Amino acid sequence: MRVTVDPGRCDGYGNCVMTVPDVFDLDDEGRAVVVEDEVEPGRADVLRAVVACPYTAISTHED
Amino acid sequence: MAATTPDGKPIEYDPFTTALMIDPYPVYRSLREYAPLYHNAERGFWALSRYADVKAAASDWKTFTSEDSVDLDRSTKSFGEGAFVDFSPPEHTEIRGLVREAFSPKRVRALRPILVEQAERLMKEFVERGSADIAWEYSSGLPMQIISHVIGLPPQDVPLMAERLKRFVARDEADPMVLPPDALAAANEIRAYFSAMADERRRSPREDLISELAHASLPSRPLREAEVTGLCFFLFLAGVDNLSGLITNTVSALMEHPAQRAEAAADPSLVPAAVEEAMRWDAPLQMMARTATRDVEYPGGTIPAGGRTVIIWAAANRDEREWPHGEEYDIHRPPKRQLGFGEGIHFCVGAPLARLQSTVAIETLLKYAPEYGPAGTPQRVVKSNIRTWEHLPVSL
């Protein structure tokens, strides 16, 4: 499963970074970035981060 | 015309009644099914309860403004200036931006060791004693120490400020929509306290949030002293009251569901889901108010411009249109957006800290006392928008 963040939507709340620190981080400008873009399909903590994002900036794609 | 069920029973949603405080969920269900646009003429508000309606209203700050206070009793107006919960952009965006840094993941993560240490210390004490008032001593005590540490309150002031907060949220049963004189007095004392503290930090700054705010500027101008005070008041209250409710409601949900509790105790990686599900199933902040800025049409009627509108997060969170078996607590639910932290521009700024604190609190409780049970009579918080226990005695 591939994970992406839309930088135009992200406002740097960091809920994803708190939920899954090995997949998301914040860059120097405080926007979320994906540090591990291929994750196990259906990984529960990643899906929780997707729905926890206040700006729905995170997407997952099944390849 | 008053709302009724198909068999003619009146539907009454009045968040200021004891009946609703004891169990609001059957009323929420009736609202969703038969009165998705509800009007309480006596209290003078409309109410939305379906997930789609609540989410849409919360996402549209232009149509549903927070500026006339997000509490029906307008208690947020007592925070003073700077409390951006009632603001709209662009001012909201600027002030919130200042605070967001203080709750960034980096800062929040740095708090974890302190949190774990405090939670362990309290829990060891409780286990030795064999019992605890988990709501007051743990769920409130822990966030109180953490938010005090973040803002910069010296530990010796924490009990006094806890007492003041308690007085600020107390209401008279006879007239629950009005802040009683003692609540207003407590608000004055809290503001005076933070004002003196900000003044002191302006001269000799330390490593804390109030020092940062005392020296902060918005993009357009420096932050006013009254804004520093109001911000600290708001963050202090939100950081204690709403968060303690989340911890307590998770403790309570797991106590009612021992099989799921045993699973979470055996596998701590399930704890975040248990917290999230408690937020969905029994959100501590049940609802918030908005004010319509224009006429808004719904299939069942119209909210007129100026109409106070209650958006019931806790009703939306059990809407069966979105949540199969929505009335059940189930930590294995597939992840889905619940509205307990709000939605749109006013989404809880402290959510990362709240999730971390709740997770650590529950992990630690399950580590020391996986089979905690009820011990004595619990007592609910009496406040129209909050649903949690003020006292929840448990044996450990």
TrEMBL record, chain A:
Query: What keywords were assigned to this record?
Result: 3Fe-4S, Electron transport, Iron, Iron-sulfur, Metal-binding, Transport
**Keyword Electron transport among UniProt keywords:** yes
Q: Which GO terms describe its molecular function?
A: 3 iron, 4 sulfur cluster binding; metal ion binding
Q: Which cofactor does it need?
A: [3Fe-4S] cluster
Which superkingdom heads the taxonomic lineage of this protein's source?
A: Bacteria
Q: Which InterPro entries match?
A: 4Fe4S_Fe-S-bd, Fe-S_cluster_ET
Matches recorded under SUPFAM superfamilies? 4Fe-4S ferredoxins
The 4Fe-4S ferredoxin-type domain covers 1-29
Put simply, this protein is called Ferredoxin
Q: Which organism is it from?
A: Actinacidiphila alni
From TrEMBL, chain B:
> By what name is this protein known?
Cytochrome P450
Keyword Transmembrane tagged: no
Answer yes or no on keyword Acyltransferase: no
Which family is it part of? Answer: Belongs to the cytochrome P450 family.
Native organism is Actinacidiphila alni
Family annotation (Pfam families): p450
User: Which Gene3D superfamilies does the UniProt entry name for this protein?
Assistant: Cytochrome P450 (1.10.630.10)
Keywords noted in UniProt: Heme, Iron, Metal-binding, Monooxygenase, Oxidoreductase
Task: Drop me one GO molecular function for this one.
Answer: oxidoreductase activity, acting on paired donors, with incorporation or reduction of molecular oxygen
